[in-house]
Amino acid sequence: MAVGVFDSGIGGLTVLDALKRRLPEVPFVYLGDNAHAPYGVRNADDIFNLTCAATERLWDEGCDLVVLACNTAAAAALHRMQATWVPRHKRVLGVFVPLIEALTERQWGDNSPPREVAVKHVALFATPATVATRAFQRELAFRAIGVDVEAQPCGGVVDAIEQGDEILAEALVRSHVEALKRRMPHPQAAVLGCTHYPLVEKSFAEALGPGVKVYSQANLVAESLADYLTRRPEFLGSGTESKFLTTGDARAVSSKATQFMRKSVVFEAA
């Protein structure tokens, strides 16, 4: 009954942590494509091909349902995967929709026409590749009208977090927030559109200032997956073992992940 969780690196561990708290009875297989990270600077075809390969690897582990806990993969590859590649007996889900549902105060599966919502000015912080897809704006337009989105590509932040350089990561966050606020001085809400960013959420909140609601993904995705599996239990795969897999150097990734999550995380080679 295992579920797969994929990220280009270790940022998706923030989502996995929330999933395990919400669904403690479900085994999760996590795959980090550390050998090819970061995805945020790759083109759409590269991201699609790498994400498909990782998804197939998780299917091999008995995970009929795979969560793309990587905003870049979800933004650049998910729609194409669902339309052209995923077989009917498998499912691949992304992390954007639960975030947008929370922002627009919609329940899962509410397919009514887009409507006015309370939040009118939204700041989006994400990788350059995620920003370039405009996937967030596209999904938002299905659900809400009259919302102004200002997107800030946050170059360097993921690399700094992956390298464990908190001082650099925090400095880059402040710089990116300042750049966005020059274009949108008074955002009402901020969306952290990368699963690495919860590790520096406090820095985003401090730089944005009081009165800006910061939306992070992990708990929202966990609630959405719990709801999905209640309705579609047939997509709980045949896998029975939780594990951490990486396409990179398992020892190095384990050390980095342990520092990242502040608890022991042991990867094995994929």
How many angstroms separate the termini?
20 Å
Mass-distribution shape? globular
CATH class of the largest domain: Alpha Beta
Structural class designation: alpha/beta
What's the total count of β strands? 12
Low-pLDDT runs: none
Number of helices: 12
Give the key terms:
270 residues; Rossmann fold; alpha/beta; globular; 2 domains; 12 strands; 44% helix; six-stranded parallel sheet
Structural overview:
By secondary structure, this protein is an alpha/beta fold. The protein folds into two domains: 3-95 and 218-269, Rossmann fold (3-Layer(aba) Sandwich), CATH 3.40.50; 97-215, Rossmann fold. Helix content is 44%, strand content 17%. The protein contains twelve helices and twelve strands. The strands form three sheets. Strands 4-3-1-2-11-12 form a six-stranded parallel beta sheet, sandwiched between helices. Strands 8-6-9-10 form a four-stranded parallel beta sheet, sandwiched between helices. Strand 1, helix 1 and strand 2 form a beta-alpha-beta unit. Helix 1 (13-22) crosses helix 11 (218-231) and helix 9 packs parallel to helix 10 (201-208).
Can I get a quick summary?
With 270 residues, this protein is an alpha/beta fold. The chain has helices spanning 13-22, 44-60, 71-76, 78-84, 96-103, 128-133, 135-141, 157-162, 166-183, 201-208, 218-231, 250-261; strands at 3-7, 28-32, 65-68, 91-93, 115-116, 121-126, 144-145, 148-153, 189-192, 213-215, 243-246, 268-269.
